[in-house]
Design goal:
Number of strands: 15
CATH architecture of the largest domain: 3-Layer(aba) Sandwich
CATH superfamily of the largest domain: NAD(P)-binding Rossmann-like Domain
Distance between the termini: 27 Å
Structural class: alpha/beta
Strand content: 25-35%
Number of helices: 10
Largest sheet: 7 strands, mixed
CATH class of the largest domain: Alpha Beta
Number of domains: 2
CATH topology of the largest domain: Rossmann fold
Radius of gyration: 20 Å
Helix content: 25-40%
Shape: globular
Amino acid sequence: MKSTAGNERFKALLVEREDEHTSVHIRHLTEQQLPEGDVLVGVSHSSLNYKDGLAVTGRGKIVARYPHVPGVDFAGTVLDSASDRFTPGEEVLLTGWGVGERHWGGFSQRARVKSDWLVPMPAGLDSKQAMTIGSAGLTAMLCVMTLEDAGIKPGSGPVVVTGAAGGVGSVAVMLLSELGYEVAAVTGRASTHGFLRELGATQLLSREEMSLPPRPLESQRWAGAIDVVGGVMLARVLAETKYGGAVAATGLAGDATLTTSVMPFILRNVSLRGVESVTPPRSLREVAWSRLSATLPQTGYRRISRIISLEEVEAASRSILAGEIRGRVLVDPNL
């Protein structure tokens, strides 16, 4: 198939910085302005993640160089390829690898990246569904697989998910429920209770309750946990985990520090397992994406997502940093 790449101008969200002031603009760029890479992709959809919120607003020192195009994940069609792994017309997706941080990302109608970072679109998914899952959903699936590897089965007992109304948390709740687990969801917003029950949560816990500093050991409640918060909440989850249980830790939305004791580990045989989704091996990513495609119900994509344009990204970025967004927000650069 012939390359469909050309030199026409395309639209992108560009974050620029002068002195200490960051500004956001919708610019028209050419392919010559894109960073190096061996595959050019026409972006169909991206999604808004917490890291994108930091990049767009200039917070957190997440961007390496300016000007910059954020968007830590995207899906679309190969337009041109110097790699023998991909040909023009092939549907692909990308998550992680510093894209949207050190390398220009998916808030653009075009993206040029390294072929090693791309994954073929899994059977049964289109670009919109893939970005409803996105980095957040991939992280959630890797957390579920980590609990499975630790021997946590649906009959083991309830699994608690912190930050349950967010991107990782909402997909984790839905995945666990679909796989037959009893799911407890922690949220700081009573307005999300109905949403979380629709996703499959059978128990709802308040952020305030789970943020109380724990004793070294609390009553045993959880067979497993997926934590995106860190800090005191993670310490409480560990103190409440049952004998032989496991906790998958993948975020620090609350605090990057962890003050706890060794008692859950040496008296209850609890394991704390870190999960990262930025640079997992290709084989692991492909397994996780295959399982996501097979597990998530079609109705779930509509429940947890909405679509915005590039022009709406700046306002949505402030909302995600303020904890005001539930589920997943897709970005369509072609709107």
